[in-house]
Amino acid sequence: MSAGRLLSLLLLLQSRGRVSARGIADELGVSVRTAYRDVARLQDAGVPVYAEPGRRGGYQLLDGYRTRLTGMSEGEARALFFAGLPGPAAELGLAAEVTAARLKLLAALPPGPREEAARTAAVFHVDAPGWYREPEETPHLPLLVDAVLARHAVDVRYRRWRAPQEVSRRLRPYGLVLKSGTWYLVAASDSRTATYRVTQILDATPTDERFDRPRDFDLGAYWATYLDGFRSRRHTGTATIRLSPRGRRRLPDNVPQDVARAVEETATPVGDNGWVEAVIPTESTGHACGELLRLGVDVEVVAPAGLRRAMAATVAALARTYGAGSPQTPL
Questions:
Q1: Rounded-to-integer distance, Cα 24 and Cα 6, Å
Q2: Phi and psi of 129, rounded to 5°?
Q3: H helices within the chain, ranges in order?
Q4: 185 and 173 in contact (C-beta within 8 Å)?
Q5: Using CA atoms, how far apart are residues 23 and 25, in angstroms rounded to an integer?
Q6: Is the pLDDT reported for residue 71 higher than 80?
Q7: Residue 237: helix, strand or coil by DSSP?
Q8: Among 141, 124, 132, 131, which Cα is nearest to 88's?
Q9: Which residues contact 91 (CB under 8 A, 6 or more apart)?
């Protein structure tokens, strides 16, 4: 077994008190049989571990025994940032480091704060991806992490939305951003800094080229500016709509947050039946039509006329399809 796992086991016992063989196996990612062998090796090394039999039994250290071997490796120090985010940490290739760093932190705390930290960890959980979405496959993410930290350029083949769809780039990675369960790489190519969706990177190869990130570059500030620009580029128009009370309640689950926020900021009552009229930002006519149709009869487009006609044409086509009485035969 590795010395690292032996140390992790020792720190686990020190931070948790009594732990069953199954608990050790689950925490360290080994089999129960391996957990038994690891405990025996600790005992052979002179660590005072003893077993408490019974259903509530397990292994624990002799009262008063503590190790001071809590120094963190470089990888474990990096992983501290992700200690509360096990999913992203695993995607970054830091799952083992996060576990080891957490154990070392707990072992370094006195009993009172250690118990409070354990209680806090038990009642908070972060699940980054949005509803109705499967986690994205990011096979190149660990390589990009290494490139960001070591400041090595990478050669990538990237799939984008406009033609030509597949392009080759040499990127100098400045940082990684996790947005709603999706990873983005911020990198320089030639003299331009841009954002790349990690799942759209088809191939990635490390290079020997080293680079220095600009001293005045701030990843958080860059991302905030990027989001502002993205919103301004995405919303090219506005629409006036009317919503029923039920449509207004359903709105946040069916449209982007900025559209729902615009309704709350501009809604004015229409009549005495609870309907409101509001102005919302829109992208293309087709995109807005698809979003608003999710609300069915609980929304009505007032303007612009082109969006209102698109809604009417779509509804008419649906009426023809479902008014036929039986499924139509595909051509």
A1: 11
A2: -65, 150
A3: 3-16, 21-28, 32-44, 74-79, 86-91, 95-108, 111-122, 141-150, 219-234, 245-250, 257-266, 285-293, 305-323
A4: yes
A5: 5
A6: no
A7: strand
A8: 141
A9: 138, 141, 183
Write down the residue that tokens 């496959």 correspond to.
137
Question: What is the pLDDT at residue 80?
Answer: 47
pLDDT score recorded for residue 88: 63
Calpha distance 9→107 (Å, rounded) = 11
d(CA 320, CA 88): 47
What's phi and psi for 318, nearest 5 deg? -65, -40
Radius of gyration of the chain from Cα atoms?
A: 28
CA-CA-CA-CA torsion sign (282, 288, 291, 294): positive
pLDDT digits (tens, 9 = 90+) for 91-136: 666 666 666 666 666 666 566 656 665 665 565 566 666 666 666 7
Say if CB 240 and CB 302 are below 8 A apart: yes
Instruction: List Cα–Cα distances, 78 to 15, 49, 152, 190, 252, in angstroms.
Output: 21, 31, 18, 29, 36
Alpha-carbon dihedral angle through residues 272, 275, 281, 283, given to the nearest 10 degrees: -140
Exposure string for 208-223, b = 16+ CB within 10 A, e = fewer: eeeeeeeeeeeeeebb
What value, to the nearest 5°, has the Cα angle with vertex 222 and ends 221 and 226? 120
pLDDT, one tens digit per residue, over 140-196 is 988 998 899 889 999 999 998 878 889 999 999 999 988 877 889 999 998 789 999
Note whether 324 and 305 are within 8 A (CB).
no
d(CA 90, CA 84) in angstroms, rounded, equals 12
Q: Which of 259, 110, 111, 88 is nearest to 176 (CA)?
A: 88
- pLDDT over threshold 60, residue 56: yes
